[in-house]
Specification:
Distance between the termini: 58 Å
CATH topology: Four Helix Bundle (Hemerythrin (Met), subunit A)
CATH superfamily: CDP-alcohol phosphotransferase transmembrane (TM) domain
Oligomer: single chain
Number of strands: 2
Number of helices: 9
Structural class: mainly alpha
Strand order of the largest sheet: 1-2
Order of helices and strands: HHHHHEHHEHH
Largest sheet: 2 strands, antiparallel
Amino acid sequence: MRNIKGIFPGVFTVGNMFCGFLSVLSSFDGEIVFAAWMIVLAAFFDALDGMVARFSKTASRFGVELDSFADLLSFGIAPAMLFYSLKLYPLGRWGWIVGFVFVMCGAFRLARFNLGLSKLNEKHPYMGLPIPSAAVTLVSYTLFCQEIWGVLRFPKALVTMIIAFSGLMVSGIEYETLPKFYLGDKKNKVKLIYVFIFIIALLINPRLVLFPFGLLYVLSGVVKGGYSLFHVEREEGMA
């Protein structure tokens, strides 16, 4: 019975991988908006496979490794291809270097996550910006610009975010995990409220909501890390 239940998380993982593959093909064909949405859909499948594995208690080391391969395709290679075909290509050599750095940092982030995973069903703060969050925030910037201006605006800002997010993925900054479905813990309750607000806003206008909420999540780790560093230095100065 366990083997049968173990199939379900794998279905979502393959869905994640398939969306990443379609995104790469769409980038080659110049269908940038569709490629971006495929990466967003891949993130949806990625979130579901983890939740289903924990709920059904079928999490396995094989599933973790397969999920990482899917994530590298959908949130590393696919976004790099999208941005290279969109705005990095005119930069010449520097364009593909920026794209490769993003893929490399994403692979490093995934490998470090797998090595640091002690118990499969436990949830600890993420060390470094998760690669799905980095990818979705970046590609949603293109959707955000399309919704407001009809074209991608401020390409230098996009390149800056790609470089910054690459650094954050391999950093030691902690990021919050998705909440669990119980109200016994105050911190988890607050996280559930944020997720609920995000879902409602997403249903209203996903093109306008994805990027601001994604950027807010990215900045939350930076602010939290900066506050912790300042607090530690202040305590050491007072000692």
